[in-house]
Amino acid sequence: MRKPIEKVDKSLIRSKEIEAATFFVILRYIISQLIEEIKSGLTYLSFFMLDSKSRKILCQVRRKGFLIIKNYEFLEDIDTINRNCDEAKEGVTDVLNLPGSIRFKRLEKFSSFFETFRKEAYLKKLNFFYTFRLSNAVTMLSETRAQDLKGRSISSDNFFADYPHFDLFKRQFKVAVALTNIKDVNGPTEFIPYSSGYKTEVFRSYLSSWLSLKKIVIGGKPFLPENYYSKLKKKYGSELITMEKGDILIFDSRNFHRATHLSKGFRKILWLYY
With contact defined as beta carbons under 8 Å apart, do 242 and 146 qualify? Predict the structure, then answer.
């Protein structure tokens, strides 16, 4: 006599498959993050191969998360850089319009000036010792105003990146070149010092950042819980990054920060992403 055929619960099988896939994706992230942390430790040891000035710069970026260099000396003066930004943006096709801000991406594709500029030797060297990645910068110009193109004030609730966040789950070397003076009223970025080290409390946010980078999930953003950001702010304080025209900001992409409201005037920054 034949045994009755047991019915298979397909939904249960599907559930198990999803659980297994999720487990292996998270495992891949953990391994990737572990490799990044080991590499980060090795780069820190390599700082001692540098001259004292460079070592001091990278040690502060590593420890505090950011550093301002006053009136940085590029091969070209800041007015020449500014003028070339205005010329290059006219041909840029990858333009991102955001609340209160417009971003012109990959200037080097449309300008021989920026194709050369992005290879600036000293910053390229600092990036290599900070990340062990030898690369030229990708450039982006951002312009932010207190009013939109129709003259209407931008609400403080609608400004881009005004939420607590970090840029990437791993350490990345970034530079912001101030093309205008950035005062308290010009929407300076707020940074939490000493927050670029790995924080287990925001595991889900790091995972979201990794999933987005690997294109496993589209649109994953490295947000931070507001209460956690406030907790760190209370512990470490915060700094508003005001700069003079010609200053540069070097920062670690994993440092916690957010934009502040630009209540007056105009802010113009050239970004170098390594």
Answer: no
> What 3-state DSSP class applies to 91?
coil
User: What's the pLDDT at 164?
Assistant: 87
Buried b (16+ CB within 10 A) or exposed e, 184-208: eebbbbbbbbebbeebeebeebbbb
Q: What is the pTM of this model?
A: 0.86
Find residue 266's DSSP bridge partners.
145
With contact defined as beta carbons under 8 Å apart, do 36 and 197 qualify? Answer: no
Tell me what pLDDT residue 20 has.
Answer: 86
CB 163 within 8 A of CB 27: no
Residues 6+ apart with CB under 8 A from 174: 167, 250, 251, 252, 253, 271, 272, 273, 274
For the chain, the structural domain boundaries read 11-273
SS (H, E, C) 40-83: HHHHHHHHHHCCHHHHHHHHHHHHHCEEEECCCCCCCCHHHHHH
Place of tokens 């191969």: 49
CATH class of 11-273: mainly beta
Give how far the C-alpha of residue 80 lies from the chain's centroid of Cα atoms, to the nearest Å: 26
Low-confidence ranges of the chain (pLDDT < 70): 1-13, 147-161, 219-221
pLDDT digits (tens, 9 = 90+) for 165-189: 999 999 999 999 999 999 999 989 9
* Residues 111-120: tens digit of each pLDDT: 999 999 999 9
